[in-house]
Amino acid sequence: MSAPDNFRSAAASYARDAARAPLIRAVNFHNTPRIREAELERQVEQLARDFSSVNEGELDDYLVTGRWPKSKPGVLIAVYEGYRNGYDVMRPLLERHGLVGWFFIITGFIEAPVGEQFTFAAGHDIDMETREYEADGRYAMSWEEIRELSRRHVIASHTRSHVSLTSFDAEEREREIVGAQRDFVRHLGHPVRCFVSLGGPAYGENPATDRLIDIAGYQMVISNLRIQRLRSWA
Amino acid sequence: MFLVGENLAAGSTATSPSGLNLQLAADFRAHAVLLEQVRPDAGPGDVAKLVEWLAERDFGTTSRRFRS
After folding, report:
1. What's the rounded Cα separation, in Å, for the pair A105 and A81?
2. What is the pLDDT of residues B48-60, one digit of tens each?
C-alpha cells in the first residue's frame, strides 16, 4: 500500500473504505488550559450525552468483529501531547462525566527538564496558548501523573519529539518509535498498545517505519484517516 | 474525525456496512466533488480536512446528520 498522491485518488480510497469498514468517531483535544475549562466542560458534557467513550479492549473487539455492543455510538476521545493541563483540567472533566480519554504522550516533552518545557514545546510543534504554569515552569505531565492516568484512561505513544518521521534518518526514526516505547516500559512498567506519529504515515505506507512499529510491538496505529489493528494483545 | 478501522492481523473479520458507513461515504463523495470543483489545487491532505469538517458537523448539536 502506498499513500495516494493526489486528491482524487485519496478521496476515492477513503470513500471506498468508509463505505464498508468499521468506523470510529474520534474527537481531538490538544492544549486544554484552565481559562477554557467552562467551554471544555460543555463539550465533554455533550460527548457524554450523545456517545459512549471507547477503551482499548472495546476498540480491539470492534476492529475484530465490526460490532459495537453499546446503545450509544462510540467515540475515541484523544487528548494530545501530554500537556500538564490534560491532567489538571481534562482528566477531572472526563471522569466527572464517566468518559475514558486516550492520552497521546510525547515522551520527550515529559522528559524535558522543568523550566525548559515551554521552549521544548516551541521547537516541537506543541502549541502553547498560555503561560498558566509560569510559577514553576512545568508544562508537561509528570510520569507520576501519567501512571495515575493509566489506571482509568488509555496512555498511548505520540513519539519522542513530535516531528514528522519523514524528516528523520533511520537512527532517529528508531528513537522516535522504539525509543518512545522503551520510555513507557521504563516509567509505566509495561508497553503501550497504540502509536500515533505526527501526520502519519499509515501502516503499510513506509516499510522502514512499519518495521520499527513491529519491533516496538505496538498493537494499533492511528494515522490521519485510519486506525489499524496489527496484532492481538496478550 | 471519522477513522476507518482496519484489522490487519491474521484472521481479520469481514464486517457488513452500517447506516453510518453508507451515509458517510455518500456525503463524503458529494462534498469531495464540490471541493475539487472549487479547489482544483486540492491535495491528498485535504481529504483529512474534509473528513474532519464532516465529523465536526456530526458532533455539533444543531446539524447532526450521521447516526450509527
Report:
1. 5
2. 999 999 998 888 7
Query: Quick check: B9 and A226 CB within 8 A?
Result: no
ipTM > 0.85 (yes/no): yes
Asked if A100 and A150 touch (Cβ cutoff 8 Å), the reply is: no
Residue A221 DSSP SS3: strand
Q: What is the DSSP letter of A201?
A: P
CB nearest A24 (choices: B3, B25, B58): B3
Q: Are the Cβ atoms of B12 and A64 closer than 8 angstroms?
A: yes
pTM, rounded to two decimals: 0.93
A 177-216 residues with CB < 8 A to B: 203-204
Place of cell 455518500: B26
Query: Which cell is B47 given?
Result: 481529504
Coil, strand or helix at B2: strand
For residue range A13-57, what is the model confidence (pLDDT) as tens digits?
A: 999 999 989 999 999 999 999 999 999 999 999 999 999 999 999
List all residues of chain A from 122 to 181 with a beta carbon under 8 Å from chain B.
none
How far apart (Å, rounded) are the C-alpha atoms in residues A47 and A73? 10
Q: Mind telling me how many Å the CA of A196 is from chain B's nearest CA?
A: 13
Lowest mean pLDDT among A41-45, A66-70, A197-201, B47-51: A197-201
**First and final CA of chain A: distance in angstroms?**
27
Closest residue in B to A78 (Cα) is: B1
What distance in Å separates the CA atoms of residue A85 and residue A30, rounded to the nearest whole number? 10
